[in-house]
């Protein structure tokens, strides 16, 4: 057994840097040999140097060709994930890819087949599964202590809307944001989606109509095991990243409340101020990202299956497609209608 | 102006007695002259005597013919509401009718026309509008302090399921239970429903399949002003009457949390026990019932419009019908499809 | 057995009116025949008329001489309580007296002996014992479920300071405010105070130095059963009547949190606003006052001992005297040093 | 300026290991060259090896003589702190010493004079100052937004009592446990203690009478700026490390609530289970330890004053001595009576 995994991070945007920083400072038995970005700039170089990463490059191929590299983190823009997955697979590297894997399921299917053929580990970046609260919730449900699941309610609202330029290429709220909730629904119910009905509207940014996209959305998911899920998302809520989950079961309800920046309550004549949730999802889920990365590194070290599989990456995309179709046609859409590619 | 309203309560089940007790002990400027029930029994007689109501009768007509009686409370079974509304209107009595007014909209339309013709006050028993929390929430929304409404989430779960015999004649979860949420949606959005999609399932009591009914239901409501509402209901949750509301607006979110039996937290080695919500909705909304009754009495004394109108009683029934149709046909149903009767 | 108690309320200030209103509207089997105040004014007359009390008088003796009157509520200023207790006892009336009974223990001892000699019911107005939270806390402790008591923490802060003119004659913070906490300590520990150490200071109103009084005070109480109690009081906290209690026991801790005006949480960019406690103690303890009055009326109807005895009224006064002495001399003071009068 | 601090940790008990682990994995610009313990055992060796610390020794002098070592962490038993402070100072090493510095103030005074003479950085290990909640509370108070401080309430209870053998040499509850609260009182009030009155008792472990020590204690502190502080401590509360603080000011109250293990609420028929605080103070304050260590390392790198000074280490010991004396003599004790050594 190796005693250390050598990793390369490809794509040095916000999420790529977060992974690199966590790998360097919080995860054991891993070193980051490369930080690569095809559009490498001075700021990225400075960041990498401060972090102590020696191999800074604008040519990801260098990472892929280095035999010392065991694993690559694909943190580039969504439409390039499949290409990098394919190249990394062919180079025999273990792969961690950020979500959503790809909005083009046909293209993605080719890439994932390469990864399977290469026999490398493949993990999809759904960090919420590693959140202490959601993993506790899942354990509670699986324990049988709250009976059988009936309904799930998931809520997610960003503090402020992402930049319009980003949203234009994000693939829409179902691919960009609700995809985490679709993942959670599968995770918490241990079942697959059967049918989805979605609704949405533009309330805060009229420009979204031109994309077209919505800033407020809700979806109903009917699972194969009979459970119902109700999801709502909002692009902007001002008071912090608001993400709560609730699982209503036959013998009890499990509620996952928000995490908060602190535990300080201030009581004054003009009101009682309670703690706020953190503003950004990366801050909110920082420890989940740490656990996610440790899990991926350990799956390589101990040759264990990755905790979040390729199928776990594909199904939420199919759900997002079904939701998008439902929104467009205003009718419930069966998952079986999404035929491009399915693993499960 | 009269200085006291004379009332008769018709129908001495749980809710009729609650109204009578509240009128006797908590509402000013009203006296209860009659407590009537067509199926009067010894227990009802005993209860009325203890409460100090002199006129106990199994013939509601006696109340209607007594010129001293100003107002009647119709608390009989749902399928008799229209008949009593008609008879009370013809007798010139002000009318408070429990919800749902009637599941037969054609029959109801005739009754409400009589009430309108008679020029009497008519109030529908949607007490949740008088709850201190929901009325504060509405005031906040109307104040503009949280911006424009985007989405509403309503959750309601009974502690334990009502008796099967009761559910058999209840008209189903949308008429019996979610009708309060349909009312809340209209109340909190100041808009009318455009379209509804509903889903549901049987999780805890297989017998419901024979009615047929469901024990767990969810509904999406698209309002004419563009707002979305997501409602979920459950017949049984064990830990108290769980009713929470949330209104997500462009500049803030208003959350109505549960009321609790007390404020005592017990911390022990085996867990930290937080206060529970009250078990029964009557207990939960007791003060709302008081305010509802005071409002009705005051509307008569001061000749003001009733706070919850006939239209407020009819529209949620139409929404329940749309939800029922949606559940049966698994498609979004427009309110315009419910054509039997509409006021708005 | 009588089926109704006839009561007279003497002293029509805020607390006297509260009792009268509760007796009229919320308590069963009682009627208020008289509302008396030696300094009767037009406003009082108007108030009594609206409440439907016929016997309005500036001569309390009229109530005491009326053989129909079973019970009197003594809600006059503290320094007249003993006199009215004596007169009521001699007239054979059951007595409910507001707290503190009297700051002059010698005078009080004479009055209470008269009440005892007369064999009438005597109840001291410590309403906090009837609060749903504190009575639940006591039941929990007595149940043994949290083990044996170790320490009690009590906190009480008024929203805004009472008027200076009132404070000048209030007897000081220990007599006027902390007396409720002294009562709670006895109630929750089922033990008597052995020794008290008190501290305090003037932080918000320099004029209090002239009385002299303090606006912020803390006291340590060592109980005969070994338990410790820590009490803090403040005259002004701005954000609502803040009263919390905590009982730390060998197998768990019982916390009594604040009651709140509502359950509405408002989340905005500038903060998350939680519900406030009610501003006034009467609002906070309204239901406790109702229960207290029902208990007193029932003790008469069913000839049961009063729930809060004369001794329960006297001991907190002795504790207040010990605390006052401790503050003046900056030393722990034994209750045995307070020799004027003791019942326990 | 150096770009990395070389540290040695002396004393490899629970707290020493925690510091070492944090320095290795969470603090930037520092390396741990030595882990030393005069009573080095196999388990410590294994632990150090896994952590990647090369210099494992049973002779602390080796660390002190190595010119590469910039700073030492003194995590040995309390009675040896002064000796190691002296030796480290003479060797010219920067010093981080765990609390309490020493119960023998005369001995400590000599050691601290050496440190001062040597001109090295000296930081006392009061990590609670670096807790996100307490530092926010302090900032709020200093901002003036809540007015002027009146009273502080601090509560601290361990989940389970430390082993008896440990308690026998701990110096008693005031030195071992309440010392953190004494530190907090100074930190939050920006003032010094004038007088202390303390009380306590044995409730859960009779053996403590033989030490003698108490398992439950309370203390009143009167500060030079007039503020009052009320502290309570308990050795055992079962439901997690319960540490709450409250600062009551003239224009508002700041409450520091507990941190919790997660945000999961479970609602069942037998109760509503809220999240628990972590069981151990190290878990509770882990991020505070990280910040404390980063602060110490940065003070060396950037030649800034240490954030928690020698005086900050000495004064709480004097307060503990005053509290101990107060408990023994049952009287308020002035800090001026503790004459062995004072810095402030």
From TrEMBL, chains A, B, C, D:
Gfo/Idh/MocA-like oxidoreductase N-terminal domain location: 7-126
Keywords: Oxidoreductase
Boundaries of every GFO/IDH/MocA-like oxidoreductase domain copy: 135-254
InterPro entries: Gfo/Idh/MocA-like_OxRdtase_N (IPR000683), GFO_IDH_MocA-like_dom (IPR055170), Myo_inos_IolG (IPR030827), NAD(P)-bd_dom_sf (IPR036291)
Keyword Glycosyltransferase attached: no
Domain of life assignment: Bacteria
The keyword Oxidoreductase appears for this protein: yes
UniProt-listed Pfam families: GFO_IDH_MocA, GFO_IDH_MocA_C3
GO-annotated molecular function: nucleotide binding; oxidoreductase activity
Family: Belongs to the Gfo/Idh/MocA family.
Protein's name in the database: Oxidoreductase, NAD-binding domain protein
Organism ancestry: Bacteria, Bacillati, Bacillota, Clostridia, Lachnospirales
């Amino acid at each position: 057994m190796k005693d250390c995994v050598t990793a390369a991070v490809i794509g040095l945007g916000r999420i790529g840097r977060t992974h690199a920083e966590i790998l360097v400072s919080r995860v054991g038995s891993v070193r980051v040999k490369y930080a690569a970005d095809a559009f490498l700039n001075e700021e990225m170089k400075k960041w990498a140097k401060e972090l102590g990463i020696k191999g800074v490059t604008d040519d990801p191929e260098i990472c892929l060709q280095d035999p010392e590299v065991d694993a690559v983190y694909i943190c580039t823009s969504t439409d390039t994930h499949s290409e990098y997955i394919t190249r990394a697979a062919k180079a025999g590297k273990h792969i961690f890819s950020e979500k959503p894997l790809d909005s083009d399921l046909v293209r993605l299917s080719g890439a994932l087949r390469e990864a399977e053929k290469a026999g490398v580990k493949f993990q999809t970046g759904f960090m919420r599964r590693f959140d202490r609260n959601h993993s506790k919730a899942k354990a509670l449900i699986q324990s049988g202590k709250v009976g059988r699941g009936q309904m799930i309610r998931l809520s997610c609202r960003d503090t402020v809307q992402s930049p319009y330029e980003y949203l234009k290429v994000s693939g829409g709220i179902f691919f960009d944001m609700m995809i985490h909730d679709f993942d959670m629904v599968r995770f918490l119910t241990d079942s697959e989606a059967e049918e989805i009905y979605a609704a949405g509207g533009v309330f805060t940014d009229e420009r979204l109509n031109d994309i077209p996209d919505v800033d407020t959305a809700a979806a109903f998911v009917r699972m194969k095991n009979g459970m119902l899920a109700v999801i709502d998302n909002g692009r902007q809520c001002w008071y912090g990243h608001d993400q709560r989950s609730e699982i209503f079961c036959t013998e009890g309800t499990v509620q996952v409340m928000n995490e908060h920046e602190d535990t300080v309550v201030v009581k004054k004549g003009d009101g009682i101020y309670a703690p706020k949730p953190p503003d950004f999802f990366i801050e909110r889920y920082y420890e989940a990202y740490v656990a996610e990365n440790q899990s991926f590194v350990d799956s390589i070290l101990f040759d264990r299956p990755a905790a979040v599989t390729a199928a776990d990456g594909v199904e939420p995309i199919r759900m997002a497609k079904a939701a998008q179709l439902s929104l467009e046609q205003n009718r419930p859409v069966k998952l079986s209608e999404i035929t491009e590619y399915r693993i499960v």
